[in-house]
Every structure is written in structure tokens, then in C-alpha cells.
Amino acid sequence: MRYTVDNQCVGCGLCARLCPEVFYMGADGFAHAADKAVPRASVAAADAAYDDCPMAAIHMMGNGAFGSSRLSVPDE
Ligand code: SF4
Questions:
Q1: What's this model's pTM, rounded to 2 decimal places?
Q2: Ligand 1 centroid to residue 27 C-alpha, Å
Q3: Read out DSSP for 17-56?
Q4: Under CATH, what is the fold of the domain 2-71?
Q5: Which of 27, 38, 40, 66 is in the most buried spot, having the most CB atoms within 10 Å?
Q6: Every domain of the chain and the residues it spans
Q7: Would you list the DSSP string of 3-14?
Q8: Which residues, judged by CB distance below 6 Å to any ligand atom, belong to the binding site of ligand 1?
Q9: 16: CB partners within 8 A, 6+ apart
């Protein structure tokens, strides 16, 4: 599982502070997500960034072995 950041990002930097293993601020002033699967140790922090982004600019892609815990919750 990976994350992407769309063009709604306003560059507040919150995601990069919460989970620097996955999100970083680019020279363009906006957040970007590392182009690799989220490490197991970073899943909770990445989830927090996803939840707390004020612009809902972070999106999940796929569901790998170390995917977000929320993606393993069955639909009700
Ligand atoms: S938390 Fe959201 S708005 Fe803030 S830098 Fe990250 S992606 Fe951009």
C-alpha cells in the first residue's frame, strides 16, 4: 500500500511532520509521498497523516502486506 498527494495540498507540512518516512515537502512547497510501500513501522503514522490532512489531499493506493490497518477491516 502506498499513498499519493493530490493538487488540493496547501503545503501545511502536517503530513511530513507526522510521518516523515512516507511524506516529504518538495521544492515546490507541497507534500509528496514516497514512491514505495509504507513500512510496517510507519503505518500508524501514515494513517494519522491521512486522517488529519486538512485538505483531504492524501489518498491510498493498493493494499500490500504492510497496508493500512483500516483496509483490513471488513465492510459492514
Ligand atoms: S497535511 Fe495535507 S495539506 Fe498539509 S502538506 Fe500534507 S498533504 Fe498537504
A1: 0.83
A2: 14
A3: HH-TTTEEE-TTSSEEE-SSPPPGGGHHHHHHHHHH-TT-
A4: Alpha-Beta Plaits (3.30.70)
A5: 38
A6: 2-71
A7: EEE-TT-----H
A8: 5, 9-15, 31, 53-55, 57-58
A9: 23, 24, 25, 31
| Ligand 1, pocket-test mutation among 3, 8, 9, 32, most atoms within 8 A of CB | 9
Which helix (H) or strand (E) segment holds residue 2: the answer is strand 2-5
The amino acid present at 1, given as its one-letter code, is: M
Quickly state the pLDDT bin for 15 (edges 50, 70, 90).
very high
26 vs 61 pLDDT, higher one = 26
